[in-house]
Amino acid sequence: MRRSSIIMLIAAVALGLVAVLLSRTVLSDSGGPSIASGQGAVRTVPAVVAAADIGFGEKLTPEKLKVVDWPADTLPQGSFQRVDELITGQGRAAMRPITANEILTVKSLSEGATRLSTAQLLNPKMRAVAVPVTEVTGVSGMLYPGDRVDVYFSRQPEEALPYSELLAQDARVLSVGLDMNVGKDKPEVVKSATIEVTPLQAQKITLALAAGQINLALRHFTDESRVRLQTVQVTDLNDGTVTRLVRKPRAMGGPDYDGEQPAAPGRVGRPAIPPGKGVTVIRGTESSIQPVIGQ
């Protein structure tokens, strides 16, 4: 009885060794660990994720990070495989709020800088321009980093009627005031907003700031459409109905005064009264000049 037990124990140990050798062989052939699934093994690779919630601007520390096995086929570009990649040197900080177990990527972190900068948020070949805003021009303080806006320019020149132009469409708001946090959840009236535009749009906005007034119009975050708008003047400020303009009466004795009496609203204009030749008789809306006897 004792002999058979020893034989069974030796056999179990041998089978265990064989299983270990086989598992190592499979791992080396597949290039990494795998996760069993209904359709077979899924190859995984190490990936750094947040061990806890990380707020905007917080610097990464070892206790806020951990390494997990991530499916290789769904690994996002710019991810990290080791914690020391994120904490060595000057370290990195979160450019937006990061939730626990979220994978960390280059786009969500400052690139090795000790301070946060709007330049890190810019897309290649784009520019950041700050425009002054008020409670009216800044959409009542409802602008948030990450919003999309259209930029309008209005001007009242001396030689023409006031007009308005569309300068830029679907511009991304990088910051409101000094706040770049896309997780901002409280409205605030600020004095400036920084938006992302092309170099040509930046040139136009700079000139517009010197010549007139800038207004921002908030648009839906899923709307990427472009529209063509013509210059709008005061005469275009209606809903499509016919507009009737009434000329201002000229001042009596002014440089453009020609001796005519201004017409009263809703009444036929009276002709000029030649001095000493007659009197004007008005009946309802009609008028006539009657000679004076003896003249």
Helix/strand-derived category reads alpha+beta
Average residue pLDDT: 77
Please work out how many helical segments DSSP would assign: 3
Order of helices and strands: HEEEHEEEEHEEEE
The rough form would be described as rod-shaped
- State the total count of DSSP E strands: 11
Walk me through this protein's architecture.
- The strands form three sheets. Strands 4, 5, 6, 7, 8 and 9 form a six-stranded antiparallel sheet that branches. Strands 1-2-3 form a three-stranded antiparallel sheet, with no helix packed on it.
- By secondary structure, the protein is of the alpha+beta class.
- The model is unreliable at 265-271 (pLDDT under 50).
- The termini are far apart.
- A hairpin with a 2-residue loop joins strand 10 (279-283) and strand 11 (286-290).
- It is built from three helices and eleven strands.
- The radius of gyration is 38 Å and the shape is rod-shaped.
- The chain folds into three domains: 35-116, Antifreeze-like/N-acetylneuraminic acid synthase C-terminal domain (Type Iii Antifreeze Protein Isoform Hplc 12); 121-236; 252-295, no CATH class.
- 16% of the residues lie in helices and 25% in strands.
Helices and strands, with pairings:
Blueprint (H helix, E strand, L loop, with lengths): L1 H29 L3 E4 L2 E11 L14 E7 L12 H4 L39 E6 L15 E8 L7 E14 L15 E6 L1 H13 L1 E7 L12 E2 L45 E5 L2 E5 L5
Antiparallel strand pairs: 1-2, 2-3, 4-7, 5-6, 5-8, 6-7, 6-9, 10-11
